[in-house]
Amino acid sequence: MNLFDVYSLYDIEPVSGKGNYVYTADGTEYLDLYGGHAVISIGHAHPRYVDAVAKQVAKLGFYSNSVQNSLQSTLAEKLGDITGYGDYQLFLCNSGAEANENAIKLASFTTGRKKLLAFSKAFHGRTSGAVAATDNPAIVSPFNATPNVEFVALGDIAAVESRLATGEFCAVLIEGIQGVSGIHEPGDEFLQELRELTIKTGTLLILDEIQSGTGRTGKYFAHQHSGIKPDIITMAKGIANGFPVGAVLIAPHIPAKKGMLGTTFGGNHLACAAAIAVADVMKEERLIDNAAAIGQYLISQLKEIDGLKEVRGRGLMIGVEIEGDAPALRKKLLFDRHIFTGGAGQHTVRILPALCLSKEQADRFLTEFKSIL
What we know:
It contains eleven helices and 15 strands. The N and C termini lie far apart (42 Å). Helix 6 runs parallel beside helix 7 (188-200). By secondary structure, it is an alpha/beta fold. The strands form three sheets. It has a seven-stranded mixed sheet with strand order 4-10-9-8-7-5-6, sandwiched between helices.
């Protein structure tokens, strides 16, 4: 059987990792500043994480949600503590796209409305509803296209106000920081105005923090820089450091009804053990503070480099827009300098390392990046 050939792959295979490094079978070391799409949050093979997962799988890796699982309650308590959303409700699933699917469905159930407002250049996942809310024709099939989703320009509060005034929209779905499109921030003032408009029109506000959450921007969620509180928050990626976990945080005013949401694998024992370990490590090692400090340093140093078009982002969620060919630059970084980075289009390099990145590792990247430029 052949693999379904849908990925553009680099000719490289990491087989192990430690901290902010990955290694190929011949022992070659690569500095990982991408974390596999911002998934690695506490570093590769963190001993606390490895121990927790190994112990849990040796006891009970999985049972369905037809029985009680106290690990879910433990995870809810720890997430409530580290996020500051202790009064919210938690629904666990398996991925970011799944989290957004459930958030959209929950908003529609709650309001009785069927339309969703999203933003230009948005990316919310690759399942049916999440794809429909994604502004990328390349991944939206004819089946996914629907008049129930409308898009407005990011930052255009007048357009948002005009659409919400119709009373047709169950929710507004927005990323804390747009990631796939190249690190674009909605802005604190825009989020504050958006929150006021959604409350005024009885529309729920869903914050997609799948890439921008889990401490990456120097706060647990990117929207917390603006001081707002959404009705629903979706998260995944870094929550379990590579184990597939998605989550929906739901405000206390939204009631749960038996059977309205469900999942087979979501919140299983092994997934919860992995996510609990990540929350513990993140808090004990003050990784969110480190993301803020090292991210601020990286951004300030990048802004001093001549010839860059723009440096965007917060914490360790950084987009560097160059004049030239970003994919070619990233290949040179990877194959000549052994540094992984991410991309977004032809001109943007994305930097999304684990939150344990050190100043020495940041300096190595800066030196090699300037050298290639």
